[in-house]
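Hey L., structure's done. Input below.
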Amino acid sequence: MGERGDIIRRMQRALAGERRDLATFGNAELPESVTGRLVAKGIFGPLDERGYLIVDGIDGRAYHIAVPSRVDLGALPVGAIVTVSNGPAPRAADRAIAELAHDGIYRTSEHLAVARASDRPGRDPEGFVQAHVRRLEALRRAGIVKRLEEGIWSVPRDLVERGLTHDARRAGGIRVEVRCYLPIERQVHAVGATWLDRLIVRQPTDRPSTGFGAEVHAAVAERESFLVTERLAERRGQRVIVVRDLLSRLRARELESAAGKIAAETGLIHRPIADRQPISGILRRSVVLASGRFAMLDDGMGFSLVPWRPVIDGRIGHFVTAVTRADHVSWNLSRCRGVTR
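Output:
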């Protein structure tokens, strides 16, 4: 009871008088995922290494969530939009592998044929299948699948369930993802692909209208007006129609601006990344933008900005190689190790 009282007082201070329903239950009872504004963070105390997050959810409730010590609180800025998930979700790759396996045997040649036949715009069939092979390699190291020969794998009937258990064991239960590093008020006029833009593109019909959700509703309306003035959207009656490639245009604008500033600071030439072309260099630093977090790779003469992935956490100062395929990035963490997603 005393601990719960401390948590409630902590939440009330963080919310600065904002009226919210306070959710203080244990993480075992946490909903599948909570999305909202990070209003506070910290550790429980000198004798408890666990951290905590206070999230002002878009559903009108505020959540106090305990997170394991492995979560880097320093990488989570107060004001950012985050999603906290209670355990990993089943992987689409595991489902696809299980569906394509016949009598427990999965063949990459069959998967490649299916991927080519689907002919989805923007998808690289070879790269798509290779992403599944990388997943199989990870599951092989965990003893879940077996590689019989090149391109042929033995997979169990309960692959999806065992893959989920494997991911949950590695993740430690709670996962925290940053949806946008900028506070919502700075997203309204930001030159970049923000969380608000993703909401606008998805056009959800059940936008919340209480608590932080009401702020989101108002910010979306302001952002739509901004996009209209930037000729990235137009009004048609009560609706706002955005250009088809809105997110990629906004991301390109922001990356060009950020690259120009880095070039002026360092004297290096900006090398834009090209699809399926490897980029190698020293990982110099992380660059946080409205469009997300990017890695600055320095090859000695020029630099590239590549979308950050958790696999390169702690690799600043190391030589790495990245290959982009559409919206996916594969990383080679050394000159002799394999590719990791």
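The chain has nine helices and 18 strands. The chain has four domains: 2-87+172-180, 92-166, 185-243, 248-340.

-- N.
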